[in-house]
Amino acid sequence: MFPFLEYFLVSHKTILKNVGEFYDFISRMFAEHLRNLDENDQRSFIDAFLIRQKEEAGSPHAYFHDGNLTRLVRNLFTGGTETTATTLRWGLLLMMKYPKFQEKVQEEIALVIGSAQPMYSHRGQMPFTNAVVHEIQRFADIVPLNLGHETAKDVTFRGYFIPKGTYIIPLLSSVLRDETQFEKPEEFYPNHFLDSKGNFIKKDAFMPFSAGRRACAGETLARMELFIFFTTLLQKFTFSFPSEVTDVDLSPLVAITNTPKPHMICAVPRC
Ligand code: HEM
């Protein structure tokens, strides 16, 4: 987001080395896909891209070139791994901190899913669990600064003139913690997403995936992953404090993403 800060990074060389290894891995993956490529049996995004690449071969304005494929796959990996994992880590931490909510989720799992494999289609019958997953995302606020954007033309927004080419940081935190939208913005409070009868309610201000045309491309996948992994983990385990620990610090480690501080956790199998 701020390329000039690159030179102040202590672990600059390690980061570049890791990025290099990551690119090597992606190149090996492409080579493998190219070897087994079958136009009549496209197995993945990479296959579809490589076929378009063949179609546009020789064009002077080629878009589907290797450099673009590498960056796209890199974006899917980086955008799609830490985000979901960090949200789940917040989820387990919050369940440990608030055992009453954990118990209620487990009761709903027992009622709707039992010992079967949790599926995304169960979500509609599980308003409390759905509200808890939404509240985890709201409270954790894992991408507080969103990604940087730039105005493509002159804009006047709420009386402010913003010239074309201005670097914009749309703060998602300011929406996720907006006290006009959420009754107790600083607390973990699943009722933010429930009505008085316990039905799930959508909130326009719920935008951990941002909004507009450039909102998260993986939102649908991420929502499925979060629901299925969270319910599966709570179906199989109860998360609690280790015996020597009595409380946990919920303030995040601040970086581009908000992650939980290192902590201990007990996962007790449920028989
Ligand atoms: C809890 C999980 C996730 C959260 C909170 C999240 C959040 C975000 C946010 C805030 C943005 C920036 C949107 C903007 O610029 O306005 C973004 C972009 C993006 N995300 Fe996610 N994301 C998650 C999971 C995923 C997954 C699973 C994938 C793909 C496998 C993914 C792929 C992307 C991509 C490709 C972009 C760039 C979209 C673009 O610039 O057009 N994300 N995400």
UniProtKB/TrEMBL annotation:
GO MF annotation terms: heme binding; iron ion binding; oxidoreductase activity, acting on paired donors, with incorporation or reduction of molecular oxygen, reduced flavin or flavoprotein as one donor, and incorporation of one atom of oxygen
Family the UniProt entry places it in: Belongs to the cytochrome P450 family.
Protein name: Uncharacterized protein
GO CC annotation terms, alphabetical: endoplasmic reticulum membrane
Record membrane topology: Peripheral membrane protein
Keywords, sorted A to Z: Endoplasmic reticulum, Heme, Iron, Membrane, Metal-binding, Microsome, Monooxygenase, Oxidoreductase
Signal sequence coordinates: none
Gene3D superfamilies documented for this protein: Cytochrome P450 (1.10.630.10)
Subcellular localization, as worded in the UniProt entry: Endoplasmic reticulum membrane; Microsome membrane
Highest taxon of source: Eukaryota
Major subcellular site: endoplasmic reticulum
Cofactor: heme
One GO term of the biological process aspect: organic acid metabolic process
SUPFAM superfamilies referenced in this protein's UniProt entry, alphabetically: Cytochrome P450 (SSF48264)
Organism listed in the record: Eleutherodactylus coqui (Puerto Rican coqui)
Residues reported in the UniProt entry to bind heme: C216
